[in-house]
Design goal:
- It contains 4 helices and 4 strands.
- By secondary structure, it is an alpha+beta fold.
- It has one domain (about 5-90): 2-Layer Sandwich (Translation Initiation Factor IF3).
- A hairpin with a 2-residue loop joins β3 (about 70-80) and β4.
- The longest helix is centred in the middle third of the chain and has 10 residues, at about 35-45.
- The mean pLDDT is about 85.
């Protein structure tokens, strides 16, 4: 899927650029750190219908299948030299524990 040409989903249409949670993956990678533990923690905190924005140097396509299998949906937009990936918790209940494994 070419995310640059993806149609903005309904849940993003009325959303301002700010989101409920934000994680800059570029900062972790710039310092040689693994962002996965921080990402997992934020995904566990994400309540139904909340949105997490990831700022990434490259589109994290390999992450999408994992997110979808755990009840999240995503939308990506290229912003100059980086990507903003919006991840929405689309589950109705919030009692489930999630991990990236």
């Amino acid at each position: 899927m070419n995310s640059e040409k993806a149609i903005r989903p309904e849940w993003m249409r009325n959303r301002l650029p700010n989101t409920d949670l934000f994680l800059d993956l570029r900062r972790f990678l710039r310092h040689g750190l693994e962002p996965l533990p921080e990402l997992e923690g934020l995904l566990r905190e994400l309540r139904p219908c909340q949105v997490l924005c990831l700022a990434a140097k490259e589109e994290p396509v390999t992450l999408y299948r994992i997110l979808e299998s755990q009840g999240f949906e995503h939308y990506a937009e290229r912003q100059g030299r980086h990507w903003n990936v919006y991840i929405r918790n689309c589950k109705l209940g919030s009692g489930e524990k999630r991990g990236m494994s």
